[in-house]
Amino acid sequence: MKIIENYCPKRIPLEEQNEVISVAVAVYNVAAYLDRAIISLINQTYQNLEIILVDDGSTDCCAEICDRYAAQDKRIKVIHKENGGLFTSRNVGIENATGTYLAFLDGDDWIEEDMYEKMLSAMREHGAELAVCRYKWVYADRTVDLSTGKAAVMEGQEMLAKYLEEDDAFQIQNAAWNKLYRRSLVGNLRFPKRLYEDMLYTIQLLNKLSKSIYLDRAYHNYVCDRNTSIMNMGINEKIFTDLIPNLYDRSAFLRQIKREDLALLQDYFMYKRILLFYTATSRSKNPYKKKYMKLLKDKLREPDKSSYAAIFSIPQANPREYQKLKIFLFSPQLYLLAMWLNDKIVVPIKTKRVKK
User: Fold this and answer.
1) Cα separation of 24 and 18, whole Å?
2) Is the predicted pLDDT of residue 335 greater than 60, yes or no?
3) Would the pLDDT of 172 be above 70?
4) In this structure, what DSSP letter does residue 139 have?
């Protein structure tokens, strides 16, 4: 991996904007945000775009908004379809894309005007098949941007490894929308038919890379406050029917491609996450609380001791997480008591000392 400090991709003159970027926009009941999303695409400094608005059976006025913009800009085409979920909208976008490059946008987010120009410029300069950028968290009362201006050029599966490490220095994430893909890289790969569809898709796609570049500049604006978004659903049935199965599928895929080291890394974060789900569920007022806690407990008791020993012996593992898990396996009740004491007594004391 090669780190480049203060990297700024070159501008691409209009006469060199000769390759089409297809942008698939998933649209479903986001009328309050959709104008902003579409305008951010129309105003891109890289103008050779194919903007595909996929209306997933919206029941508000999204369909009319899409049609209005299509009548104003010949780069825009609209596909109206029956409601099928985000994965169907993205797959329809892929199947109708004709560009050399492919990008995704959700209808409630928006992007900076030079996002695709800068990402494509970086890809061209370094011969990359994929560019990934940082994004801003946009809340009702504030915007968080942790950009450093650095770039990282990665070879082969280096980006896959960084992605699985969940290192905050590389905001790669599951998201489809902070990436610009060479269309040939995507090939026949499609999003699976479930929620959290980008979790497995991303890991499969990163496995195919020969070269990629990460830009630590926030070109994408991710809206965090929509209560109806998938990311704000909290502990619910979909955690068990969609999210956890995705985690298991990721581990299976990594073993299939003979990357046991990365499979153990994936397992570490998976069981750490499931333990967090157990803690959160125990403190919730969910009517299915007991059912969910039992399901999570069963998941955590599936691996044997030797499996957990291998998982928690990887270099990236925090020994304290293994201690928490051991307490849980001995007694879930004792684990919950320990977490309560930690959150109510230990953490406040440490915080008070730091402030002094």
Assistant:
1) 19
2) yes
3) yes
4) -
Segment 210-224, tens digit of pLDDT = 999 999 999 999 998
244 close to 274: Cβ distance less than 8 angstroms: yes
Question: Per-residue pLDDT for 230 more than 50?
Answer: no
Query: Residue 346 gets which letter from DSSP?
Result: I
| DSSP 8-state secondary structure symbol assigned to residue 50 | E
Cα–Cα distance, 42 to 261 (Å, whole number): 43
CA distance 303 to 164: 20
C-beta separation of 152 from 128 below 8 A:
no
pTM, two decimal places: 0.90
Q: Sign of torsion, CA 308 291 166 334?
A: negative
**Residue 171 is encoded by which pair of tokens?**
């905001």
Per the CB < 8 A criterion, the answer to whether 314 and 265 are in contact is: yes
Give me the torsion for CA of 133, 47, 52, 187, rounded to 10°.
Answer: -60
User: Residue 344 — φ and ψ, nearest 5°?
Assistant: -90, -25
CA dist 79 and 54 (Å) reads 5
Query: Angle at Cα 21 formed by Cα 16 and Cα 27, nearest 5°?
Result: 150
CATH class of 2-223: alpha beta
Whether the Cβ atoms of residue 101 and residue 186 lie closer than 8 Å to each other = no
What is the DSSP pairing of strand 2-4 with strand 151-155? antiparallel
> Where in the sequence of the chain do the CATH 3.90.550.10 domains occur?
2-223
Residue 158 one-letter amino acid: E
- Distances in Å between the Cα of 154 and the Cα atoms of 12, 103, 160, 193 are 23, 20, 10, 30
Which value, to the nearest 10 degrees, does the dihedral of the CA atoms of residues 265, 267, 273, 279 take? -130
The Cα 124–Cα 136 span in angstroms is 25
Question: What number of other Cβ atoms are within 10 A of residue 119's Cβ?
Answer: 27
* Closest to 248 in 3D by CA, of 225, 274, 222, 226: 274
What confidence tens digit (pLDDT) does each residue in 235-247 have?
Answer: 788 899 999 999 9
Q: What are the E-state strand segments in 226-311?
A: none
